[in-house]
Amino acid sequence: MATSNTRTADYDVLIDVDAQGGADIGETDLEFHDFHTGGNISGTIPPSQGGRYEPPSSTEGNASGPLSIWTIRFYQQFFDVDTNEVLQRCAYSLYPRVSFIETIGDNPDLYGPFWIASSVVIVLFFSSTLASIIAYRAERYEFDLNFALLTGAAALMYGYTFLVPIVLWGVLKWYKSEHAQLLDCITLYGYANTIWVPVALVSISPIEIFHFHTISNVVRWISAAVGFAVSTTFLVRNLYPTLNSTEAKTSKILLVAVVLGHLALAFLVKLIFFSVDIDD
């Protein structure tokens, strides 16, 4: 009987403890916490907050950061034009009634200058060869194809398109010109060469079939002079604000140098490619 009473007493104590603590259970700090932030229950990793994990980003894919010259994206920015833009810029160079620099804005390119120079090289070689064939056939002479004209055209046009503006830019920087931009200079000189395509085609002068050698030569000189006038007007109009940012005497000297350099190009085009000499 003693044992039975003890168990009954223990049972009563347990019941009393539970009964007394039952009122306090709801007043404790125990509660369920929602570990999903911002209702994100999809299982994806939320954006970086505090000390949470964030995947490393690629510096090459960061468009806002500086691009390395060893990446393709660095050079893509110089070819960011389409066909319509290139054709429009070619038209502006042939009819320089507006400021070309204002037209291109902050998007000068190397695509147009490269392909214009390449086109002029091919057209000069083709036109010069065809003009010579016409002249030789008219006089019943045998004609030998001269591939040296192709390499000469490439050296002349690529050299003038890229080396001359680099030298001009270097001189402008030497004289502390604040407006001199290398890419602008190359773009101007590249598109200025557009005029030599129609000049070369006109210089074929098919009237030489009728033995009008003197008239053909006059036509070629006139076409070269027109090409010089149009392209020089285009260059001077757009380079003048940059040249004028130097001292007055320096700007005049540079302006004369630009004109004389372009005059030399016109003479070389005429004398090298369209001086048809037939030995008797």
Number of helices: 10
Overall geometry comes to globular
Percent of residues in beta strands = under 5%
Q: Helix fraction?
A: 55-70%
Biggest beta-sheet profile = none
Total DSSP E strands:
0
Give the distance, in angstroms, between the N- and C-terminal Cα atoms: 152 Å
Low-confidence stretches: 1-30, 32-63
Listing every helix as H and every strand as E from the N terminus to the C terminus, the arrangement reads: HHHHHHHHHH
State Rg. 40 Å
Mean pLDDT, nearest integer?
A: 79
The secondary structure category is: mainly alpha
Structural write-up:
The protein is mainly alpha-helical. It has a domain of 164 residues. Helix content is 63%, strand content 0%. Helix 5 runs parallel beside helix 8 and helix 9 packs antiparallel against helix 10. It is globular and about 65 Å long. The N terminus is likely disordered.
Indicate the topology.
Layout: H1 2-25, H2 72-76, H3 83-94, H4 100-104, H5 111-138, H6 148-174, H7 182-192, H8 196-202, H9 213-243, H10 248-273
Helix pairs in contact: 5-6, 5-7, 5-8, 6-7, 6-10, 7-9, 8-9, 9-10
Features:
globular; mainly alpha; 280 residues
Quick synopsis:
Helices cover 63% and strands 0% of the residues.
